[in-house]
Specification:
12 strands; disordered C terminus; alpha/beta
Length: about 375
């Protein structure tokens, strides 16, 4: 039996997981030949250590790293995978003055940073320009406040405006397939436009953290490897990988869930392509058994960080001799931790033992649940 599969079987929470033997063997072989500054270290971003021992989540404040939309829930693109629903949970602001008042309150509540986002126009541009002077004032007033901005296709002037405003982290999606740009995003742009935007952002002083959405073409992997090559040509501060989640899509254009094995293959290729760049698995990925499989493949591939890991992943990483750290993060902080974690590790706790992990909760699905009045 493959030693890595034996390691999986030794983790109680994962003992029933059915992983692809050939893929695991390929991962083990590929891993043995990897070297680089980002090979071997894993950081797990989790609400609390207790979660991985008892599956109990601790409560936490909501304003540590809030997401803010300058367009509220409005977005002109109405991409098939999102339909602007991703903006709905964000705090809406409609003017620079409103943003400034909001941030004062966030800092007073102990906030460490914020994510600025918003809906795009028909050219995949989020119009932050009126907000740049306000962001500059906020940054001058609160120098330690970390500001991340999710931008669409940025021009050189736009990127310099972000930099001058004091934005710490620039985030953007990199799309590698023309059909996906046209059909999913309804956008008259090219793959070259996305690459040019990434190159422009990387040439600033900001940390740049592109995202690749696995399965973005209606659940198929189409342009992901081309997107990875683009990232490889313009080495950013880190790369965040997420997996498409079908619940945001409309019934008229449904999205399939990408097979976990294909997701794992991409994890392996991303790790091999970017051995000097942190590669992180973000929060967005399907739930249930698929999530457990996805996370297990992320551990085996050697990604540098996993946000909200499934039960058993810390134990698996230790059994595979990874250098494991845990960063306690509240749910509202996780976006910030994804993009800021590659720098300061002062909050990270080294894990020097193999933790006990509970059985997966879905094994209890046949037990009736009785709700008291």
């Amino acid at each position: 039996m493959n030693p890595w599969l034996e390691s999986v079987a030794q983790v109680e929470a994962l003992e029933d997981l059915r992983l692809d033997e050939n893929l695991v063997a390929s991962m083990r072989e590929r891993w043995s030949g990897l070297s680089g500054s980002q090979v071997g270290r894993m950081n797990f971003y989790t609400p609390s250590f207790r979660h991985h021992e008892t599956s109990e989540l601790s409560t936490c404040g909501k304003n540590a790293f809030p997401a803010i939309s300058i367009t509220g829930g409005d977005c002109k693109l109405q991409c098939d995978h999102c339909k602007a629903k991703i903006l709905e949970p964000m705090i809406p602001v409609r003017s620079p003055e409103e943003l400034e008042r909001l941030v004062d309150g966030i800092v007073a509540d102990g906030g460490r940073g914020l994510l600025l986002s918003g809906g795009s126009d028909h050219q995949n541009v989020v119009h932050y320009e009126p907000y740049f002077p306000t962001v500059r004032r906020i940054k001058d007033r609160y120098p330690s406040l970390q500001i991340a901005m999710h931008t669409g296709i940025a021009t050189r002037d736009f990127a310099l405006g972000m930099e001058d405003a004091g934005v710490d982290v620039a985030m953007m999606d990199v799309i590698g397939a023309q059909d996906t740009i046209h059909q999913v995003y309804h956008l008259r742009r090219t793959v070259d436009d996305f690459e040019a935007a990434l190159e422009t952002l990387v040439n600033t002083r900001m940390k740049v953290v592109p995202h690749i959405v696995i399965g973005l073409h209606y659940g198929q992997l189409l342009g992901e490897w081309n997107a990875l090559e683009i990232v490889q040509r313009h080495l950013p501060s880190a790369l965040v990988l997420v997996v498409i989640m079908s619940q945001y899509a409309s019934q008229s254009r449904p999205f399939a869930t990408p097979p976990a094995e294909e997701v794992g293959q991409f994890f392996m290729d991303a790790r091999a392509a970017l051995t000097e760049t942190p590669v992180l698995l973000g929060c967005a990925r399907p739930s249930g058994v698929h999530r457990s499989m996805t996370d297990a493949y992320a551990v085996m591939a050697g990604l540098n960080g996993i946000a909200f890991p499934s039960d058993g992943m810390l134990a698996l990483a230790k059994r595979l001799d990874r250098e494991v750290f845990v960063t306690p993060s509240c749910c509202s902080m996780i976006v910030g931790e994804e993009v800021l974690a590659m720098g300061d590790h002062s909050d990270s706790i080294p894990l020097d033992h193999i933790p006990a992990a509970p059985k997966r909760q879905n094994r209890l699905r046949d037990i009736p649940i009785v709700l008291s009045a």
